[in-house]
């Protein structure tokens, strides 16, 4: 238990402590280190010009952020954590890359140290009112930034259910799952430059797409089939040398933690362009990630067995023990004209066929080097759809809404989903097949302790779709 109050359903109890990059209007906590005169001043005096608000490293606890740059400036790490000698330098950076590059033993020691400092029975921080004012920032007053400098982004395609559903819609029932799919984690190289942090608006793209099924000639137009993809993604800690594959038993050492991700997709652009090299402009106009990186160590208690793998994978992809994570996932939509977010999908990371360690080992098996800050998307996380009650399908099965994209929920636009205009008027509904301008999409995920006493969560990954912006030179 922490001396910081954490409500039962909070995503950020002391068992989590996810890392993020945040900024505030002022660098309140660090002022005394730049100007001793301000030391006795009230904390909210305007910063001197030197003090630009700078993005820095924090961990989330309850509804607060613990500013690690302040703890470092007060020499907390120097005194209590010899494993981390350059803490002020590392935690004053605008990305997590420096910290993520240090590796598992440093992350683990830091986690223990922070849990100790935050625990209810340790007085050091708890009873130092002045320091608490400097070191804790309410999340509501902070701005979150991209957690990492992402050099490369790869997106996998590892949900068997999603790959089968998309395969049926794009290529027909007989070619749904390609012959390679059960032998390797299929992936494509995405675009790192357009990965944005939760809260960033996404603009509807235009591009080449077919006029219609009946008239399959290309035209240039705004996408009419805008979609989300419910994904999670891992961030690379220490990288590997070019030419040196990471073996599957070492793959975990290279993953710092995970986020929730929305791989926005323009299905009509994708469907026309993807042959034979895979997704390109239908997916690289924006990918949103949640700001808090939940460490693999915090997820460790929620390891479970993944789906059985048959046929047996080749030796370099074989691993033993539980390799999947039990992370409950939800997608909510809020049209501009609706009052509230409405849940349209419930799924789970544990349904994913290929594990994150298999993804990383496969990515490097040819000698490809991953670098600190690289992002690996899991692919859309659809679940096994249960058309009946959980009693008939098994309690562990997906629900009838465990499709991780609108393409699947509307079955390629053949049916509409209903969204109540407000929770108090459930019969007054707004219909959707794909995302309309002004719609917001919110994704969230959490693990729950078996006795329900706490959650280790990811917070929110949210984005609003803006209308396409016409430009004179972009004619069809
Ligand atoms: O061509 C297909 O079968 C579909 C490919 C994708 O949609 C790529 C993708 O983003 C994979 C995923 O999110 O699962
Ligand atoms: Ca995707
Ligand atoms: Mg994308």
TrEMBL record:
Binding-site positions, Mg(2+): 263, 283, 287
Single GO biological process annotation from the record: homogentisate catabolic process
Pathway connected to this protein: Amino-acid degradation; L-phenylalanine degradation; acetoacetate and fumarate from L-phenylalanine: step 6/6
A GO MF label: metal ion binding
Catalytic residues (positions): 162 (proton acceptor)
Cofactor: Mg(2+); Ca(2+)
Domain Fumarylacetoacetase N-terminal, residue spans: 53-147
Residues that, per the record, bind substrate: 157, 171, 270, 274, 380
Residue ranges of domain Fumarylacetoacetase-like C-terminal in the record: 153-384
Reaction catalysed by this enzyme: 4-fumarylacetoacetate + H2O = acetoacetate + fumarate + H(+)
Name of the protein: Fumarylacetoacetase
């Amino acid at each position: 238990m922490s001396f910081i109050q954490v409500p039962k359903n909070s995503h950020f109890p002391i068992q989590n402590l996810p890392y993020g990059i945040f900024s505030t209007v002022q660098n309140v906590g660090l002022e005394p280190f730049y100007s001793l005169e301000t030391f006795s001043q009230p904390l909210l005096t305007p910063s001197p010009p030197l003090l630009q608000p700078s993005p820095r490293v924090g961990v989330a606890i309850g509804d607060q952020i613990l500013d690690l740059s302040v703890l470092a400036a007060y020499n907390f790490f120097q005194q209590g954590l010899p494993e981390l000698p350059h803490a002020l330098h590392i935690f004053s950076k605008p990305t997590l890359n420096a910290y993520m590059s240090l590796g598992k033993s440093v992350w683990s020691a830091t986690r223990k140290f922070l849990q100790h400092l935050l625990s209810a029975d340790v007085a050091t921080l708890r009873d130092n009112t002045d320091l608490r004012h400097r070191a804790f920032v309410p999340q509501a007053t902070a701005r979150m930034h991209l957690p990492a400098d992402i050099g490369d982004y790869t997106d996998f395609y590892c949900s068997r259910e999603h790959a089968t559903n998309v395969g049926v819609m794009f290529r027909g029932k007989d070619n749904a799952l390609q012959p390679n799919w059960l032998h390797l984690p299929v992936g494509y190289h995405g675009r790192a430059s357009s990965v944005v942090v939760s809260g960033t608006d996404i603009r509807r793209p235009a591009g080449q797409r077919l006029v219609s099924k009946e008239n399959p000639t290309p035209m240039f137009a705004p996408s009419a089939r805008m979609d989300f993809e419910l994904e999670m993604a891992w961030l690379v800690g220490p990288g590997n040398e070019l030419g040196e594959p990471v073996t599957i038993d070492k793959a975990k050492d290279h993953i710092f933690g995970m986020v929730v991700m929305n791989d926005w997709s323009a299905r009509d652009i994708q469907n026309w362009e993807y042959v034979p090299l895979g997704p390109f402009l239908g997916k690289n106009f924006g990918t949103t990630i949640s700001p808090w990186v939940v460490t693999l160590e915090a997820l460790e208690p929620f390891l479970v067995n993944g789906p059985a793998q048959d046929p047996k994978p080749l030796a370099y992809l074989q691993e033993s023990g539980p390799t999947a994570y039990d992370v409950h996932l939800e997608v909510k939509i809020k049209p501009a004209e609706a009052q509230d977010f409405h849940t349209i999908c419930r799924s789970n990371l544990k349904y994913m066929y290929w594990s994150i360690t298999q993804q990383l080992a496969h990515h490097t098996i040819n000698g490809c080097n991953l670098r600190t800050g690289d992002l690996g998307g899991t692919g859309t996380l659809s679940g096994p759809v249960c058309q009946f009650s959980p009693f008939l399908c098994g309690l562990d099965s997906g629900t009838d809404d465990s499709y991780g994209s609108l393409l699947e929920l509307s079955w390629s636009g053949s049916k509409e989903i209903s969204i109540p205009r407000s929770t108090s008027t459930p019969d007054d509904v707004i219909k959707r097949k794909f995302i309309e301008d002004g719609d917001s999409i919110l994704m969230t995920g959490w693990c729950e302790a078996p006795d329900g006493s706490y959650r280790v969560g990811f917070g929110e990954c949210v984005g609003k779709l803006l209308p396409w912006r016409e430009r004179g030179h972009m004619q069809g």
